[in-house]
Amino acid sequence: MEMYWNERQELKFQVHMKPNQKLKYLNGDSTHMPSTFRAIPNGVFGRLSKLTSRSKKLDDTPIDEIYPHHAKALNIAKIAPEKFPTFKEIETRRTKFSKDKRLELKKAKEKKRKRDTFFCIGVSKCSQKTSNHPPFHAILKKLRDNYNLKWLRISMSYHRFTNLSQAFQGDLNSKLQKGITSSDFADLPCNCNRSSKVNGVCMYKGECRKAIVVYKAECVECK
User: Fold this and answer.
1) Cβ 88 vs Cβ 59: under 8 Å
2) In 3-state terms, what secondary structure has residue 4?
3) What are phi and psi of 192, to 5 degrees?
């Protein structure tokens, strides 16, 4: 989060970018369904809109003009929309339903999900382009109706098979990176000086420079 004062000396907020920060999103050529690629830019736009202070001038401004780095990363990943939405369009989309309505829809979805029977279908780009058969859900529903299986509530779950180049690339990466560790996540030896030690011993038992540590604080009086 970045805070700044505008020309009217009003405190405003926007998304902060570090000097050397590089944005990367899921590549459009990867083995994921189209719904996954549609969800990524929608999530990015929603987050940027929430963290940016609103103004009348900003409402009609396309989001790629304010956040060109995010737009560039989406374009590189080949998942950017043809036309970037304005902040007003994003906010309208996000507030389409009230909080109570969203909660009601969520509960209805969860209730329906408990009764659904999921069919997991594996597809490939080749099968999507060359197949002439009806969609899988249409075939399943036709079979359900033909055999009078009224209790069967069909819900689809699709996944893509990796193509040959992706399989080779994944195998190559695993072999090249085998045994390679990042120094950023390596544990370092204790370097406590005499004044910071307790009775000549490191108070953290020699693990004062341990990487990725989560500290837990407890109130002595409450405990």
Assistant:
1) yes
2) strand
3) -65, 135
